[in-house]
Amino acid sequence: MIHEMQLREEPFRKIYSGTKTVELRLNDEKRKKVKTGDFIEFSLNDNPDKKILVEVIALYHFNSFAELFNAIPKKKMGYSPEEYANADDMNDYYSKEKQSQYGVLGIEFIKH
What range does the domain containing 32 cover? Predict the structure, then answer.
């Protein structure tokens, strides 16, 4: 199955270059359908014709982004060693209420 998701410029670029191999999302109804072995077609928010196809190789379920950030290496999430990585950054995308309601998901993939 192929799932479609959109990304902002920076995470799209990091996936394209291979420096990001785990995407962080709310584990909402759409993400609950994603299974290991499925494909995700990421498109660029500002230019939907730009796409990257990845294959899901692992799913990591957590109650919060704080738990996820403690368990998954920051490098896999696209952070460089000198870059500050904080789970609170994800609150800009997903409210704490939604995180509590759905839980969060780390989607590990390989680019095709």
Answer: 2-111
Q: Which of 52, 61, 33, 57 is nearest to 110 (CA)?
A: 57
44-94 per-position pLDDT tens digit? 999 999 999 999 999 999 999 999 999 999 999 999 888 888 888 888 889
SS3 76: helix
Of 45, 76, 79, 46, the C-alpha closest to 58 is: 76
For 63, the 3-state DSSP assignment is: coil
Instruction: Look at strands 39-44 and 104-111 and give their pairing.
Output: unpaired
3-state secondary structure (DSSP) of residue 14:
helix
Name the token pair of 106. 């780390």
Task: Please report, rounded to a whole number, the percentage of residues in the chain having pLDDT higher than 90.
Answer: 84
What is the total count of domains within the chain? 1
Give the single-character DSSP code of 90.
Answer: G
Cα–Cα dist 11/13, whole Å = 5
CATH number of the CATH domain containing 57: 2.30.130.30
- Are 39 and 109 within 8 A, CB to CB? no
